[in-house]
Amino acid sequence: MNAIIKATGISTSKKIKSSLDHATIASKKCLEEATIDKNKIDVIINIGVYRDENLSEPAIATFIQNRLDINLSPFNSKTTFSFDLRSGACGLIYAFQTAISLINNKKAKNILISSSDSYPSERKNKFFPYTTAGAALLVSSSNKGVHFSDFFFRTSENDFLGLESFSYTKDNSKKHLGKNINFKINDSYEKIIQEYAAREVKSFLEEKKIDLEKTLFISSQLSEKFHYAIAESVGLKKNNVVNLYKRFGDLHTSSLTFGYHIAKKEKRLKGKKHILFLGVSPGISIALALYKLSLDDSL
Amino acid sequence: MANKFLKKTRIESLGVYFPKKKVSTKEILDQMNFKLPFDLEKVTGIKNRRFREASENSFILASKAAKKCLGKSKYKKSDLDVIINTSITQSKEKFKFMFEPPMSLFIKKHLGCHSALNFDISNACAGMFTGIYILDSMIKAGVVKNGMVVSGECISPIAENAIEEIKKPLDDQLASLTVGDSGAAIIMDESVSKNGQINYIDIMTDADHVDLCVGKSNSKGTQIAMYTKSSELSELGKKIWPPFSNEILKKNKDSLSRKNYDFIILHQISVRTINSYLKCGEKFFKTKMPETLLSVDEFGNTSSTSHFITIYKNIKNGKLKKNSKIFMVSLSSGVAIGCLSLSLSDLKI
Fold first, then answer.
1. Which of residues 139 through 168 in chain A touch B, CB cutoff 8 A?
2. Is a pLDDT exceeding 90 seen at residue A117?
3. Quick one: pLDDT at residue B1?
């Protein structure tokens, strides 16, 4: 798995309400940080779930490719492939695995993974549990050893979903289906998914035997306490946890990219050997990626 | 030392599900207040399509296809490593479009494949192609040994909206009258013989034309709709599919001819469009195209499932057999264009 996280970008302006605008801005910043020719992007994967107007096709990633003007003509010698991948806040981990598979098969060298979530009407909605923001991360091939060393995915076998979000495709009420989403959230969702995640992270770490003192924990953040509670139950110290919730709230599909971005900017990778990424999603599902830091990451 | 990435994948099994309700083009036209000044059946070559029963939705169509696919496979439900759902439509009840959890999770739980990874891909009509592209790489990279790509396309609501809203002959919703519902699922694993394998697959996005076909709610916000600039999309398709395919063929030291391929399957838009694409192909490649296979005449444009509905139909009618070599071209909104060279395994349907 010869791939590295080359750069990240985030979009946080509260004035911006469009999920596509956020994803595009974050992607642009990411490419600027990477100092890479944008036409070297082989694949764009968008992992956001909540999009403008509840658009069902084409893929949001194609709009990002269009707005960033990346290999637009099919008659160029270089082409780009864009698609959306959806797995809630576990999306980034699945996108990592997809990116590495494409890199290992020489299908791609540079994969841009974008994310953003917004309420489709672009109005603030009190039932929308996520922060409107965007993030982007560039995964590139590397000959400097294995960085993504392990992946781990689990889904509960029972029928408890915890959270369901949907719109009605034929809606005779006054709600405009292109502008509304319904959320059904079980009161116990956070508690149940926290316990489930803690159990699974613990079993993963027991097997991996990594130095927890030198491991930074970047997790989905359903509340101020959520990520700290999981860290504590698996033996990770509080100061090894990247806390985003207080500043940003629940960033959902952008949480893990934000976590990496903020940690790097605040030089919290220094002295660390690993990052443990944890995404959690309704269903209930968890996804883990263990990322081995290089010396360059710590600078 | 053997290069572990030289291995090929194959389609190990195929399952397809059609709703029972058959709807003719005449029945569609009879429901419209606006009378089209041309014969839609003659223009498209589409005689019939299937529409879901009241109890059916994307989840039901996908699950039924997935169960059939597993039933024909050597794999048990506990053997599946990953399930990738690739449908555009995500209905879980008749009018309920899901965002979370992903549809692949519901399918996984329904099948009882609890240890499988699951995620959804959204890439318009190129959904199953994109799923195959990713799964092919995952198997070759050793991330998984096998997996299912599945799609339940319950797309008839856009036709129902078009029936109500079309008010002019070249309306942007005209293409919505051609769609039909279906489910399709394939299981992929490592190929055991060159006579049954995916020889190669490649795909790219011409994002300069991202707005030629858009799926979203109608202007009143009461129903989902698809808005297509059909003639522009068709012209673009004719222009780009031969040179793009040629690049991929050259990269794989292959050529598109009757000598090399038994059949060609294009995205099932309409019989007329497919024929015009083939003419462009003949002109570009300066040779007769392989025999084209169709399903659009009987099942309409089934969006992301269309190539696999076509394979199913033509295995059933005896045209496709073990070892048949097929060149498949996907063209979808985005605009995504892909090529897949397939040597057909011994699929039981």
1. 151, 153, 155, 157, 159, 161, 163-168
2. yes
3. 39
Q: Identify the CA nearest to A92 among candidates A46, A54, A132.
A: A46
- Using a CB-CB cut-off of 8 Å, the residues of chain A touching B56 are none
**Strand pairing report for B21-24 and B48-51:** antiparallel
Q: What is the pLDDT of residues A146-197, one digit of tens each?
A: 799 899 999 999 999 999 999 887 666 656 777 789 999 999 999 999 999 9
Interface predicted TM-score (ipTM) of this complex, two decimals: 0.96
Partners of A84 on chain B (C-beta within 8 Å) are: 121-123
CB contact under 8 A, B109 and A157: yes
- Reported as type and span, the H/E element at residue B111 is helix B103-111
What average pLDDT does the structure give for chain B?
Answer: 95
Nearest-angstrom CA–CA distance, A218 and A142: 23
Q: Where are the domains of chain A?
A: 3-145, 150-298
Helix (H) or strand (E) holding B25: helix B25-30
Whether residue B287 sits in one domain with residue B215: yes
Answer whether residue A97 shows pLDDT above 70: yes
The model's confidence at residue B320, banded by pLDDT at 50, 70 and 90, is very high
A97 touches chain B (CB under 8 A): yes
Task: Name every chain B residue with its beta carbon within 8 A of the beta carbon of A163.
Answer: 100-101
If asked whether residues B175 and B244 sit together in one domain, one would say: no
- Give the pLDDT band of residue A38 (cuts 50, 70, 90): very high
Is the CB of A54 inside 8 Å of chain B's CB atoms?
Answer: yes
CB pairs under 8 A between A and B: 225
How many CB atoms are located within 10 Å of the residue A294 CB? Answer: 15
What does the pLDDT read at residue B3?
Answer: 46
What's the pLDDT at A299? 57
List the domain range (segments joined by +) for residue B98. 4-190
Q: Looking at B190, B217, B240, which one is the last position of a domain?
A: B190
Give the whole-angstrom CA distance, residue B291 versus residue B282: 12
| Residue partners of B182: CB distance under 8 A and separation at least 6 | B16, B17, B18, B19, B50, B61, B65, B152, B153, B299, B302, B305, B309
**Do B80 and B172 have their domain in common?**
yes
What CATH number is associated with residue B186? 3.40.47.10
CATH hierarchy code of domain A150-298:
3.40.47.10
In a domain, B349, yes or no: no
- Identify the architecture of domain A3-145 in CATH: 3-Layer(aba) Sandwich (3.40)
| Same domain, yes or no: B54 and B157 | yes
Q: How many domains does chain B have?
A: 2
- Best to test chain B binding among A24, A83, A175 (most B CBs inside 10 Å): A83
- Are B325 and B203 in contact by the 8 Å Cβ rule? The answer is no
Return the pLDDT at B217: 87
- Helices A91-104 and B127-140: crossing angle, nearest 10°? 70
